Queue: 2 jobs
Job 1
Amino acid sequence: MTDQDKSREQLIQDLNGLRQRLERLEARQRRARQALYESQQQLQQAQKMETLGTLVAGVAHEINNPLNLIMYNIPLLKKIWKDFLPILIEQKRIRPEQKFGGFAYDFLEDNLAQLIADMEMATQRVAKTVADLKNYTRQSNVAEKAPMQVNAAVNNAVRLAKTTLRKSSVRVKLELQDGLPPIEGNLQSIEQIILNILINAIQAIDHRQGEIHISTGYQTRDGRVYVRIQDNGKGISTELADKVFLPFITDKQNEGGTGLGLSVTYSLVEAHQGEITYDSDTGQGTAFTVYLPTPLNREGARILVVDDDNSIRQMLIEGLTFKHRFLVEEASNGIEASIKLGTYRPDLVILDIFMPEMDGVEVCRSILSEPELADMQVIITTGYPDHPKLDEVVELGFTNIFSKPFDLLKFIDDVAVILADRRTGMQIESS
Ligand SMILES: Nc1ncnc2c1ncn2[C@@H]1O[C@H](COP(=O)(O)OP(=O)(O)OP(=O)(O)O)[C@@H](O)[C@H]1O
Ligand SMILES: [Mg+2]
């Protein structure tokens, strides 16, 4: 091969490398744009809910006072009418043609009690709406959060729905994953979230083969626990599809629905820094999923990124802070890394092997010599996976080895798994 051929081949190789890098960059950009779009949508929805919350709180307050007056007076009217009726019947015999407000004796005798009862029912309906509204506005400051198990909340909610379930003949199938990491939450609020979705699911089933499937699990990729409630009911109608989380959106006016259930649910989920989504197929059913962060995901694990290549360090940092709330520090060589291991105390080190001055193998040795770093996780990265230095690293007991270049998103998922395993001390299934 001539020198010219060689340099041509080299040029082609360089070009291919550049093309691959460009494709990777474009893919990253596409993903970032999509994520930005989704966060903007969520932000808009959250702002809308907040404005509505303020408005609704004011309306609820204004309605409550006059409503109390009416609710207080109606039972009095009932009592008065009961005592008054015999007098009216007596009077009817003396002056049968007399009318009251245009109504004859017979009409009053037959209907007045019912008219009052109707008024009482209507005010009770308003009272329920106001109570729901108050509940709706209380959402954002869910008090007293404590570590709790989502599965316990599911079991309680199902117990609370027992009567409704019995009346409906709908069957509930539970598939609750054991050993979920606890969430930081308010048990009653989480029960309410599940109950609201469950009751809607029961109400959406209009046939005899009703089945509701409730499952829970853990997502390693974002450290969140989820509850999924799936029904085989009629599905969310297309007119309501984008609006179900807004207050007063209901197709149950005739059954006394206020349309506040899901907006309360949405707010309670928000108050737990969670997320709620749904999928629905007309005639097939609906599945609501609530995602709740675990402390692992919320607190953010501490990660030290060690690499002498600045662009690789920046790419890793961008990836690690993009989806997760990891706290990331960086070091550009082994000496800097050794200092930061002591001062920053990371949960995980992502360590390049080939670096000038003090290389990754030496950093591994210094990690082993520090008993205080014993439960720290280490991920080794290298562009030369076949180099004998890697054997040394494996012999020292460091076996999480990633060859560069790697798929960044997949790598971040793996980081989350490695951290989750360490924090919860259990094997977590990847979803
Ligand atoms: N699982 C479901 N299947 C089909 N439609 C649903 C389901 N869940 C909610 N919906 C639709 O979303 C609407 C809003 O639900 P939401 O719980 O907010 O109010 P509601 O159930 O109508 O009244 P309430 O205030 O008593 O809860 C419902 O009226 C229904 O049309
Ligand atoms: Mg409801």
Job 2
Amino acid sequence: MVLELNRSELHPDPIEQLKRWLRIAKESVNPEPTAMTLATVDAEGRPATRVVLLKEIASEGLVFFTNYESDKARQLDHNPWCALNFFWPETDRQAGFRGRVAKITRAESEAYFSTRPRDHQIGAWTSAQSRPVADRAELESRQSAIEQRFASGEIPCPPHWGGFRIAPEEAWFWQRRPGRLHDRFRYTMLPGRTWRIERLNP
Ligand SMILES: Cc1cc2nc3c(=O)[nH]c(=O)nc-3n(C[C@H](O)[C@H](O)[C@H](O)COP(=O)(O)O)c2cc1C
């Protein structure tokens, strides 16, 4: 597939541009179109990356959910700057954002948590994400204990679980083109939440 990306077709707001590309990625065979590699830095300035899922997209930013005691959350507590990157091989596209995160409200996290499948809810209670665990058996026995604890009724959102919203200050969109002359545009936020758009060398 040979697609192009032209300045004239770019939405003036990168979040709206992301929505357009996500819509197309969701119609493709990509099994995880909302998967994004999230980069954070630790207290020593060393980067770390992992994949998370984009769960909400609004003009204020991009939301993902995680364990607030995980490595990524501790890194974001220390330094709220992060970068993220989508790659959609079906359309030969990637896109990225840089910005600062803030935790969403407890009510927002609870509202989303209540929509999750029950086994995901149990998993959020079971996993002390990013901490060492002796063996698989320990995890499974913790899971059984959580299942018994919440055997009836709704499972509440764990206090250590919730969302982060990334407010982008920079974004970029990349479209593969033949001969390595790819189309590439960068959005930079200007005062007043307007965006400067520049074509970059590939
Ligand atoms: C496709 C995919 C989606 C994932 N989605 C999430 C997610 O939304 N939230 C999350 O905390 N971890 C998610 N994970 C697991 C993370 O990649 C990671 O292993 C975990 O969050 C621990 O990261 P940390 O120790 O750097 O904090 C996902 C993994 C994959 C492969």
